[in-house]
Amino acid sequence: MTQPESDETFSQPARLSGATLLAATGIFAAVAAFVVAWEMFFILFLGILFGVFLTKSAGSLSRVLPLSYPARVGAVTTLLLVLAIGSLLIFGVRAGHQLADADKHLLAAQEKLEQAAADYPAVYSVLSSTPLIGRFLGPSESKTDDEADASSQPEDTKSAADAKSSAPSQTETSGLTSGTISKVAGTGLQAVFGLFQTSFGLAVNSLLIFFVGLFLSLAPETYRDGVVVLFPQPRRERTRDVLNIAGETLWHWLIGRGGSMLVTGLGAVALLTLAGVPMGAMLGLATGVLTFVPNIGSLVALILAILFALPMGQGTVAIVFVGYLVLQLVESYVITPLIQQQQVSLPPALLISFQALMGVLFGFLGAAVASPLLAACKTLTMEVYVKDVLGGEDER
Question: Which ranges of the sequence are coiled-coil (predicted)?
Fold first, then answer.
């Protein structure tokens, strides 16, 4: 009669060991999948972010448009597509005309930088270590060494060497004229499109983000409840609440970023246009897009604006620098706190450190998703660990 009790006693540790082994296997599989396909995880996260935007935008329109929820999602999606295609057509045609003159302005900027580097070696050391500008500068010391070596050669050898090196120098000069955009401004544009330049390419990743977000927004409860049913019955209601709170956090983050992008972009367009900087509208638009990535995007936009302002003189450079600094201060300490309030308040040191870590590990894509990912992780930590496990209160 005691045998069944003994079997039941032994079966409990066995079930516990089996559950532990299953959980460990699942964690190991998830980590291995992330290591192998981390780019796709970040792209899918951006798709979720886009889905949150569509869902909350369609929900907000319920007071204005007396339509069904799917119809409101379709209206928001159509509006976004019209704005995107219209912007590409308008600015694409304008960029086609302006990029022909961009080489001239960037070459003048390069001459200014190289002159400063020749006069002040310390300036060259600082500029060469600066992102974008370091690629813009050519080697200064190596050219001096080559010239010294060439002057010490015999006359015949020197003339032969000059004749031999004339073709490459002409190639480099022509390449500088035709390739300056791809070397400097192109680097800045790569920062914009670097969000999507992963293994699958820009077009495929953009489609992935679009359709993942669209399908999530059409039936958000279905996907949310699909995650909820994976938890034990007593924890399902709390899991549903936590997921809803995480969605609200991402929505407030998006509102804050959108407001920052709008204010910074329009302010940059006005500043650069009034300062007479070439391609001011295009640079202002790029500034607004780059503001999607906090801190890093603003720095890249500032460097691009300064490069285009260099040929206009030191006064224009000073105006651009001070103007961008004011825009950054307004965006960081006025716009973002007013919009995001305390729900997505991220400590600056924590955000910068996390962005640096993600940038080193995963490149620009990692730095781009660092801020919303940190906001979501902070919310989950507060709700799941601080409140549920420790029994504490949210002191954000």
Answer: none
